[in-house]
Design brief:
Keywords: Kinase, Transferase. The protein has 231 residues and is of the alpha/beta class. It has a single domain (2-228), classed as P-loop containing nucleotide triphosphate hydrolases (Rossmann fold). Helices cover 35% and strands 20% of the residues. It has helices spanning 26-36, 54-68, 85-90, 105-117, 166-169, 180-193, 198-206, 208-217; strands at residues 2-3, 42-48, 73-77, 123-129, 134-142, 148-153, 172-177, 225-228. The strands form two sheets. A six-stranded parallel beta sheet has the order 1-8-7-2-6-3, with helices on both faces. Strands 4-5 form a two-stranded antiparallel ribbon. It is globular.
Length: 231
């Protein structure tokens, strides 16, 4: 199912180029998300290319869920399963950080299973610290009262082993269909904010990240819902 549109909803504005996926409104999407958790804990995947705004969308959705059902939902990310920076460097992959083979796929899948199945105890998720350029363990608490867990990540619909297992561990997966050039511009600005020069930022965006984008986009047909970025 694809949701498209050009009308911004709920009075939202876009002062900093933040991508918006809100037609129908986030309130309607919130009701769909709540419905997933009607019979117990559910994991909702948010997938998209680099720069699509996955974590931003997850935060927006989580805010609506918190308003509707306080304490019901929590957001976690696949980014916490980046291999350590020193490991990536030792493997000669520093220039390719963020590609599918620079993540701990089996560890990520194990956490998806634990989060889905271990509803009687807390599961502590790692998160990626942009200042450290490394993952930090035990950073996000998924407690027994969290019945909806929003999981954002690039490769939730990937078909390579073992990644292909992720789709079956998620109740639904929503694909954020970003507009290409605004997405690239956001990604370039992000790298500049990390200390890249404009030239190296643009080169990374149009180089290794574009290859990653093509891989992610090839999985769009596997999504349960496709949300088009509003223009």
């Amino acid at each position: 199912m694809t949701i498209t549109g050009s009308n911004r909803t709920d009075g939202e504005t876009d002062p900093r180029g933040t991508p918006l996926y809100g037609n129908p409104s986030l309130d309607i999407l919130t009701q769909r998300a709540l419905h997933l958790a009607r019979d117990g804990r559910a994991l909702l995947g948010i997938v998209g290319e680099p720069g699509a705004g996955k974590s931003t969308f997850a935060e927006q959705l989580l805010a609506r869920l918190e308003k509707a059902r306080p304490g019901l939902a929590v957001a976690v990310s696949m980014d916490g399963f980046h291999l350590a920076h020193k490991v990536i460097g030792a493997r000669g992959q520093s220039a390719r950080k963020g590609t599918i083979d620079t993540f701990d796929a089996d560890g990520f899948l194990a956490f998806l299973r634990r989060t889905r199945d271990e509803t009687a105890n807390t599961v502590w998720w790692p998160e990626f610290d942009r200042e450290l350029e490394d993952a930090v363990s035990g950073a996000t608490e998924v407690t027994t009262h969290h019945r909806l867990v929003i999981v954002d990540g690039n490769f939730l619909l990937a078909t390579q082993d073992p990644w292909r297992q992720a789709k079956n561990l998620l109740a639904e997966t929503w694909f954020l269909d970003a507009r290409p050039e605004p997405r690239r511009e956001r990604l370039t600005r992000r790298y500049i904010s990390y200390g890249f020069t404009p030239e190296t930022a643009r080169a990374k965006t149009l180089g290794v990240d574009e290859d990653t984008s093509a891989l992610i986009r090839s999985t769009v047909s596997r999504a349960d819902l496709v949300l088009s970025e509003l223009g």
